[in-house]
Amino acid sequence: MEQSAPHRWSTADLAGPTLIFIGSFLVAVTIALPTLLVGNFREIPLSTDFTTVATAEDATILDRCSLATPAARTLDADLVRQQRVVAVQPSDEHRVTLQAGTSVQAETLRIDDRAVEPEDPRPGSGADADSPDACNDATVNAVKDRVTLDRETAEPQLSARGASEIQYDSNQAPVLVPDRRGFTYLLPFDTRLTDHEFFDVVTRTTVPLKYDGDTEVVGKDVARFRAEVPETDLARAALGRPVGTDVVITRPASWFGIDGPRRDLTATLRHRSSWDLAVEPRTGTIVDAKITVDEFYAFPDGTPGVPPDFRLPHLQATFSYDDTTQSQMSRLASDLATPITIWGRIVPIVTGVLGVAALVVGALLINPAWMPARFRRSGGGGTAGTDG
């Protein structure tokens, strides 16, 4: 009895199952990419590090040198607000700690319509710029803020190892803010176009962040949000602000420009501000900002001999991101959005189309009967012979 030879699979026989396998794999990739991989791109990066610069022209500041003169003096100034935000430890796959250093510096000062360099000694200081008594510091104010955020929601995450602390004076310990809520330096990916909350570092209060429509910055569609920080007494006991930040001034009434009997008066520093933020909603990046600050010294209500509307300016300025910052933050938003677009939209479309195509072709190769007649392989050999 003759034994039949084993059947061997030809390349044509294997083509169909192979395409079915490849097609199934590509369809699985199409489904998995947006849900598994892309989700990791929608979190605050652990490599976060950006710097913003905002300028204010024709601002008004209190000349700290005049604390040693017979009368308070305010100056016209051009100011620069610089802020660097960088990710630091502790940070992990779920949380990131951001450290933000913010300073306001005087670029130019004007005294009696005369421009002076901020580093030059002013009346009320030592005559020599190198003297310990020289009053020639260009810094108007500075603050360092550390806060741990949830990488997905961008909300403060203060449980476990997370913390929020703000340092207003390098010679004083930071102030802890255990009840911090709201956004400050960035918003979450896929920011909802609704109202949110904003945390103000100066007053340590949370205020509404209201959605204010859409606009365009550097050719990019953005959402506008606005926050209003109401007048706040920075010397109030509940604030716990460190000693040494000049939130209280005690001087003779004449120093404040108030007529009457010789006496000392004590004024406290008040702060109010407004924030207009342009946010790229896909990434939560703030690509433009306008910050209006109004700080002034005022007396408690009912202080005898003091006009109820008395205000001694400390810092009055409107800061706006410069063109370079707008461009840099716009590029940062694009860099954060690009992986999401590639892996969440372009690649799934390509793999989906290729996967479906591979499944269809594989199915047709396995069952040629599904093919149109003209594409089927001929089932017979040659033509039938004739008798005779």
TrEMBL record:
Keywords: Membrane, Transmembrane, Transmembrane helix. It comes from the Bacteria. Pfam families: PorA. InterPro entries: PorA (IPR021424). The keyword Transmembrane applies. The keyword Nucleotide-binding does not apply. Residues 111-122 have a biased composition (Basic and acidic residues). Residues 111-135 are annotated as: Disordered. The chain crosses the membrane at residues 12-37, 342-366. Coiled coil: none annotated. This is DUF3068 domain-containing protein.
